[in-house]
Amino acid sequence: MALQLFGVVRAGHPRVPRAVRWEDIAMVVGEAPADPADPAAHLAVVSSLVEGGPVLPAPFGAVAEDEEAVRREVLAPSADEYRADLARLDGLAEVHVCLRFGEAGSSIGLLAEVAERARDSVSLPAGEHADERWAFLVGLGDLLVVREAVAGHGADWLGPLPAYSFVDRR
After folding, report:
1. Which of 48, 67, 72, 118 is deepest in the core (most CB within 10 A)?
2. For residue 94, what are the β-bridge partners?
């Protein structure tokens, strides 16, 4: 049976519904749908894992033939890199801040305020509902403060998310 791949976590992650384990890491999986999967459903699955520990999201639509293929072709060849990324992202989540430039001064202040709490940041393509978008890598303990800062400036935010913008895609 083909499996849909959602993301790599540490084995024993508390929020995983189904996983294929290899040593101390695991791939969160589900039954591959006959029709192309829904990107929003994929994002919901990986985002639900973030507060239980780091998750390295699999590319949307990634599938494997079976559990053995997940172990042999996905987890084993990149295990050391996955472990290093999981350690680096422990306690962190990605948040997106979307800005509209009606009030440019407050946007600059907001970015500085969020950047103070962030471990890393990256500019994202603007998109249709924002003049500027940023991804920030912040501590889980800072999520509420960041959300309140963004709301206080009238900007939009999305999070917590897996660190899509801060990991290499394998």
Report:
1. 118
2. 137, 161
Distance CA 133, CA 162 (A): 17
- Which of 39, 29, 23, 22 has its CA nearest to residue 7? 29
Which pTM does this prediction carry?
Answer: 0.88
CB 83 within 8 A of CB 24: yes
Q: Find, among 159, 167, 158, the residue nearest to 56 by Cα.
A: 167
Torsion angle of alpha carbons 28, 34, 40, 45, nearest 10°?
A: -20
Q: Tell me if 163 sits within 8 A of 137, measured CB to CB.
A: yes
The number of angstroms, rounded, from the C-alpha of 132 to the middle of its chain's C-alpha atoms is 20
